[in-house]
Write a structure and sequence with these properties.
Chain B: It catalyses: chlorophyllide a + oxidized 2[4Fe-4S]-[ferredoxin] + 2 ADP + 2 phosphate = protochlorophyllide a + reduced 2[4Fe-4S]-[ferredoxin] + 2 ATP + 2 H2O. Chain B: Protochlorophyllide reductase is composed of three subunits; BchL, BchN and BchB. Forms a heterotetramer of two BchB and two BchN subunits. The complex is a heterodimer. Chain A is α/β, with parallel strands linked by helices. Chain A has helices spanning 12-22, 40-46, 62-65, 69-84, 95-100, 104-109, 129-145, 172-185, 200-204, 217-231, 243-257, 263-266, 273-278, 296-309, 325-335, 345-355, 364-373, 398-410, 416-424, 453-463, 467-480, 486-493, 497-513, 521-531; strands at residues 2-4, 26-31, 55-57, 88-93, 117-119, 159-163, 189-194, 211-214, 234-236, 289-294, 313-319, 339-341, 359-362, 377-379. Chain A folds into four domains: 12-127, Rossmann fold; 144-266, Nitrogenase molybdenum iron protein domain (Rossmann fold); 272-416, Rossmann fold, CATH 3.40.50.1980; 486-531, Helicase, Ruva Protein, domain 3 (Orthogonal Bundle), CATH 1.10.8. In chain A, strand 8, helix 10 (217-231) and strand 9 (234-236) form a beta-alpha-beta unit. The longest helix of chain A has 17 residues, at 129-145. Chain A is globular. Chain B is an alpha/beta fold. In chain B, helix 2 links the parallel strand 2 and strand 3 (76-80). Chain B starts with 21 loop residues before the first strand and ends in a 5-residue tail after the last helix. In chain B, 53% of the residues are buried. The chains are: A alpha/beta, B alpha/beta. At the A-B interface, strand 1, helix 2, helix 3, helix 4 and helix 5 of A face helix 2, strand 3, helix 3, helix 4 and helix 5 of B. Strand 1 of chain A pairs antiparallel with strand 3 of chain B.
Amino acid sequence: MELTVWTYEGPPHVGAMRVANSMRDVHFVLHAPQGDTYADLLFTMIERNKKRPPVTYTTFQARDLSGDTAEIFKTAARDAVARFKPQALLVGASCTAELIQDDPGGLAKTLGLNVPVVPLEMPSYQKKENWGAAETFYRLVRAFAGGAGKPETAPEQASCNILGPTSLGFRNRDDIVEVVRLVESLGVRVNTVAPLGASPADLARIPQAHFNIVLYPEIADTSARWLKRQFGQEMVTTIPIGVGATRDFVAEVAKVAGVEVPQELLESGAERLSWYSASIDSNYLTGKRVFVFGDATHAISAARIASEELGFKVCGLGTYSREFARDVREAAAKYGVEPLISDNHLDVEDAIIAAQPELVLGTQMERHAAKRLRLPCAVISSPVHVQDFPARYSPQMGHEGANVIFDSWVHPLMMGLEEHLLQMFRGDFEFHDDAGSSHLSHGGPAAGHQPDARDEQAAVAAETPAPDVAAATSTAANDDQPSWTSDAERELRKIPFFVRGKARRNTETYATENGLNPITIETLYDAKAHFGR
Amino acid sequence: MTTVFDASTACTDTAAKPGRDVLKQRGQHEVFCGLTSIMWLHRKMQDAFFLIVGSRTCAHLMQSAAGVMIFAEPRFATAIIDERDLAGMADMNDELDKVVTRLLARRPEIKLLVLVGSCPSEVIKLDLPRAASRLNGEHSPQCRVMAYSGSGIETTFTQGEDNFLAALVPEMPAEAADAPVSLVVVGALGDVVEDQMMRVFDGLGVGPVRFLPSRSSTTLPPIGPNTRFILAQPWVGACAQALERRGAKRISAPFPLGEEGSTAWYRAIADSFGVPEAKFDAITAPGRERARRAVARYKPVLEGKSVFLFPDSQLEPSLARFLSREMDTSIIEIGTPYLNRDVVGPELAMMPDTVRVSEGQDVERQIDRVHTDNPDLIICGMGLGNPFEAEGRSTKWSIEFVFTPLQGYEQAGDLAELIARPLMRRELLKVGS
């Protein structure tokens, strides 16, 4: 039993719904109690789809449990096929229906439906949403592409499938446009994109392509590996998020497809991140501490961009995708940080506090945490908010994706000259810590906010390793912590709030290491000289 | 207007009003489960913490339905049952104890911990009332522990609040035998509404008046034979029965929506407390006048329009009555998840026989009826709103009626505005479907 307030992923059947909702002519009959229909609003409200997801729920109630829930399932399946006339019917159970063991797959078989039925096993008590999506996609691909042996592929032009984009995926809608454009500019034909926008008939055509682009391994990796074994289709696994990764992606696609990279793709015409980042105005971004957390794909990509393309310092990197923990560990080693593999948002919040970042790149959960800690934040990964399905074209991948990323990460930060002015005129009555940055309305102070709350909260949290051991260690922790003289404390408050936490931590570290207690103004400046900015 | 009946699955029932048929069809219910009530209960009772014992689906429901609105750390959480619990490798009661101990260490300000049963906890027959009594022995008096069910197999949306309040009734202190006659208003209301009601009660000389749920778990109203209670929300039928079992007397009335509903509601209380007619008129006249004026502004928008209500909170009959009688709209269908005739019978009796009433749901066939009836406005849940909007239809999210203070004279205009807004908006927009 695990205590949770927010969860990064839903149950596996929600992953199955995401695949069903991505596709055309697929319908999903889900054996589930009344109430599980809440999942519809993920699609109709958060993603703002115009149609209801293609899901029929059996919505059984307590009084049905003593009767025949299996019969309710059979009626729902029969009615759904008659009403929606899908090319394929997915059947499965949610967490409660799993417990009553009605076996939707077996029941559907007895109905003699005139459509192919793909039964799903979704172990709700051990697996989660992305696994459910990957498994559903794999079952569909096997069912529809698996029949024949290796088909004839057109030899005259290299062709590929783009696998992985789904409904509710972070900016998947726009990423497809960028990636198709990139691939086609190499002279490679796109055979099919799946699951988003594909029909079961399109899945049947997957083996006709020369190779597969795994755009989102959390969802497409299982299928792509199977396709490689079955049909010998190579996998392109570079994720084209960021300037460098897009360049690598183009090179990998060209190599697998056996084509030359055209000259105009080598010149980065459409891409502005490189110049904006090199421009003198971006100097202030140098060494900004950034904490990165998300699904593995977006977190690893974000860390690379932060480090190589914006000149930030990656001070934390983690993921909730346990299936891809190895990849994140490798990436974390590159930046010299401890990888954080956790699906407990409280652990992530603690890690953010400890890392003292100046920018948080995360999911909706980290946006909540950053807001509480008064840290700038940009969202880079699912799970997301309705605001992260913007009306405008806003990809993360390819050249335009890099441009979007530059804007959306830099925008929440204090501008360079503004930072300097704050340092000079911190006593100004309308230009002070609590006024926040002038270009952001949400940077204003929260009601009842104490000037140094973030700092204090961080300090308290840093001293309190975990609630259950806090009682045992708090006395010792207090003994170790040097105290501040009131002069030094006043001087510390003259440092702008966005670097004050770091100054406090550095000074305390310096004092502890040098056995200095209490901390004086001298200690503060000695520490500053010792650590630099 | 013709009523669409399906002879094979529809059965009729004439108890609501002689001659009124109730359409019942069994199919997909597109409604929230009772856990969703925690969204407002945890804000209303400020020293309570709601711990759902359930699955990842329950946690995901809470954050999908409520998470987008809540930025502070909420006073609810889910203890997620995992494979180890089900396989019997971990004793689930020990696991629950551990979770509760950790939670209370983290949130020492919590005075009432509420274990909330879910679909999985009920299917595996995890005895939460018993667990609560065990934990209560361990943690009270610092923190009391209780349990109720908010599961989807037992409850629909607002019924979760009903179960919570019904479970609170045994916890309520006994009123002294010689206590003066008191009033309890039952069903969560906005704080501002409670304050306004208190001013009216003071004016009428009715008191002492208490509210359930109370703002704190330590100030539950005392109950006894001298207690009278009135429902402020239509979904608290089980709580009403529990109060009656403790000797309290129910005052029956329409619900305080709109000028007419509010007046009828206050009048039932005034009559029960023997308030003279002249005094009643003097105290309520300014409010009635303001409510009539506020509502009149939106009448041109809603007058003559046809409205179709999907089942959601059980407020549907009261909303329909307000729309029908005070806004002169034509009601096509009143869908409600559960029709408690004892509670909403007076509301239905105030409406024409042509109004179709449906209880429970087969959402696909209900959508078919919308396509046939082509109403001017659809009041429905969040899963259905945008798909209807994309068809060029005007919709109002029903969940807002639960979250917005609407009761009483001062909110009558807000209620009218809330319903009129989608139609006014469609007039404003020169783009879209």
